[in-house]
């Protein structure tokens, strides 16, 4: 956005303004003047002329500032006082309302087109600044057009920030950039009676070719992380298999039971039929396992009770 156009459209008025109370009083005075002039006699004519002059003076002398406004009054070209809000009087010809200052929170949009970052990447940044006049006298007397100056200072500070930062930093740490801009712009505008409330970076645009490269880089990084996670999972599974192999190596019967359990788990659902080679069945040695189990049961049955041993 053109900062000069923005300042021109929102600049402070330097002219006196006609307000409702002044207009009503002046109109009533004009009516009285007309009635006086309609009368016969020199005194009535003089009174009518005086009333006409008074009506004109009322329009000039009686001023009114809104609740959010302050009027900068100059007397014979020198600062006199700050008036408002409400009605106030000025001395015609002697006094002049030089500025009407708006003390509400204001916003100014600014941008940095094709600004080069620290890693020489051209970026387009749009931002907005929220500010407020806290010292009306300094805002009117210390600088000619504080609205335009704020826009120029903000744009310059934004370009300085872009030039001192890497593109990745601008994208990842936007809040930190907002705070840094607020401090820099606030320090420059404090002497003008302007308080910078906040600065917000709204958009950071990068070239389309660079966006495609960044997208491919992010995809490659995600794929790398996925492969690392898969490798870690495979490593953990291998460790568990080694531990299980050590256990089965110390107990062949446990390995055979595990093999039979796997076959059972495979065939228990769906009524599936599995054909096993004879060599695999012999390796499982189900008869030996059953014999060991029966021998164990027999040994337990043949053992005398504790009372008989005593």
Based on the model shown, name its key terms:
3-stranded antiparallel β-sheet; alpha+beta; 310 residues; disordered C terminus; 58% helix
What secondary-structure arrangement, pairings included, does this model have?
Elements: H1 3-9, H2 20-38, H3 42-61, E1 62-65, E2 69-75, E3 78-83, E4 86-89, E5 95-102, E6 106-116, E7 122-133, H4 136-141, H5 146-163, H6 167-172, H7 174-189, E8 194-205, H8 208-250, H9 252-267, H10 278-284, H11 286-302, H12 306-309
Antiparallel strand pairs: 1-4, 2-3, 2-5, 6-7, 7-8
Helix pairs in contact: 1-5, 2-3, 5-7, 8-9
* Shape type: elongated
Distance between the termini: 106 Å
Rounded mean pLDDT score: 81
- Sheet bearing the most strands, described? 3 strands, antiparallel
State the order of secondary-structure elements, H for helix, E for strand: HHHEEEEEEEHHHHEHHHHH
List how many beta strands DSSP finds: 8
Which regions contain 5 or more consecutive residues with pLDDT less than 50? 1-11, 306-310
- Number of helical regions: 12
Radius of gyration: 46 Å
How much of the residues is beta strand, in percent? 15-25%
What structural class do you assign from the helix and strand content?
alpha+beta
Strand order of the largest sheet: 3-2-5
